[in-house]
Write a structure and sequence with these properties.
By secondary structure, the protein is an all-alpha fold. The chain has 4 helices and no strands.
Length: 75
Amino acid sequence: MLEQLIEVICNYVEVEAENVKPESRFMEDLGFTSFDFMSMLGELEDTFDVEIAQQEAANIRTVGEAVDYLEKISA
């Protein structure tokens, strides 16, 4: 799941896949804007066939947290 998420992340920001780590923060480390982040969440919903709650999305700060959340809701 992490690899797929990194692929999606690289579609939104200019960052090399090998520089994306579980502890990478979307805004501070990867350079996401809030618009980029919300757009990416929409793509993740399509990719993983899940629905991401807006309230939950606000709590996702790092790549690792996103992976944990996606694994939890797609189980």
